[in-house]
Amino acid sequence: MTEAYLKPTAADLAAAVQVADREQAAGRFENAIGIYKAVLAQIPAYVDGRAKLARALFCLRRWDDAWDAFDIRFRLMDVPPQVNGRNRDGTPRPIPRSKIAPPPNKLLVMSEQGMGDTIQFARFLPRLLQAGIDVQVVVPQKLFGLLRTLDPSPPLLAGEMPSSVTNVEHWTTMMDLPRLLDLKEEDYLAREPYLRADPVRVARWRDWLEDHRGKHKGPVIAIAWRGNPQHKLDPKRSARLEDFAPLAAIPGVTLVCLQINATEEEIEGCGFKDKILRPDPDFDSGLDAFLDSAALLQSVDRLVCVDTSLVHLAGALHCPVDMMITNEWPDWRWLDIDHENVWYPTMKIWRRQVGDADYAVIAARVAASLGKS
Predict the structure, then answer these.
(1) Which of 99, 183, 303, 333 is placed for a possible disulfide with 178 were both Cys, Cβ 3.0 to 4.6 Å?
(2) 314 and 242 belong to one structural domain
(3) Given 188, 223, 249, which residue is the final one in a domain?
(4) What's the DSSP call for residue 122?
(5) Is there a contact between 218 and 252 (Cβ–Cβ < 8 Å)?
(6) What is the pLDDT of residue 1?
(7) pLDDT at residue 115, as a whole number
(8) How many CA atoms lie within 13 Å of 287's alpha carbon, on the beta-carbon side?
(9) 166 and 204, same structural domain?
């Protein structure tokens, strides 16, 4: 007699996910993928499991599978993207999404979730124009000034102003562009700067640095220690200003604070406040974001920070950047590669290892490497 098939219990599936998580954390991604798939066969609607599966696929650099699995991000959004056109009689008409090559002739591209995501994937927009695609791009209006430095730059629409679009056949997202353009991993690397800083602002901030550095004539390092506090991984991604003390110990160093929401208490309370320069309160203010940051990044020796939108800005400009990240579930895009990455040739990744007390340990490694360069 055939034994009855025993369906796994909720406790069994939870235990399996814990094993898969441990396998992924240990870098055994194939094992993790097998377990996640087995769990998802029982619980197809398990959103976190699908997100973890996508991350494991990215870490194995199985790009096509990973991009497909990454569609789970729409289930994690409060308001997933939706695009409607208008029929001749004025009634709304849903416009289909396109994510597989070849791209359609008339295309609307939607920005992704964060400012850093948009900056990272904006590198692919000129390829659409060069291919003769009639493209319009929806992004936060604060990024208009920065993205207009793309060459060529597409028409930009403000994401804050929802409206029906015209002359569009399909829509896609920026993270769909690698598949839509049929790109391979070697095509992802930004081999040339794809964004530009305003020369007038660059000159102004270089003069500001010269006027304010005083006796400190060593390297000039921009720093940022916090990301988006609303991000669910922010407690692991963000550091403290005090963690940058090893950089402050570099002889003659000047630290330039690019932490946009830094408080006076943080600056005044750290033991190396005399090494820190903080731009004026109107820094990066106004309608456009990042224009002052871009100019200042062109004026310093390098950026050292945690995983924030600034690393994407620095990478897009080809400014040297040392990014410090936790090794506990770092973002999918940084894969499982030490030091290097597939996106930015001027970026070096420093991972916080198990047993490291805090980010100061990584900052000490960064400082030591700068002393050898």
Answers:
(1) 183
(2) yes
(3) 188
(4) G
(5) yes
(6) 42
(7) 93
(8) 5
(9) no
Q: Is residue 132 part of a domain?
A: yes
Per-residue pLDDT at 171: 96
Task: Evaluate whether residue 45 is within a structural domain.
Answer: yes
**CB contact set of 8 (below 8 Å; sequence gap of 6+):** 16, 42
Collect the ranges in the chain with pLDDT lower than 70. 1-6, 162-164, 229, 231-234, 354-355, 372-373
Question: pLDDT per residue over 83-118, tens digit each?
Answer: 888 778 878 888 999 999 999 999 999 998 889 999
What pLDDT does residue 280 have?
85
Q: Please tell me whether residues 174 and 247 are part of one structural domain.
A: no
Give dist(CA 101, CA 54) in Å, integer.
21
What tokens appear for 40 in the block? 């998802």
**Residues 132 and 210 placed together within one structural domain of the fold:** no
How far apart, in whole angstroms, are the C-alpha atoms of residue 197 and residue 200?
A: 9
* Residue-number span of the structural domain to which 166 is assigned: 84-188
Q: Which of 158, 188, 218 is the last residue of a domain?
A: 188
352 membership: H or E segment, kind and range: strand 347-352
Sign of CA dihedral 275, 264, 270, 348: negative
Q: What are phi and psi of 310, to 5 degrees?
A: -65, -30
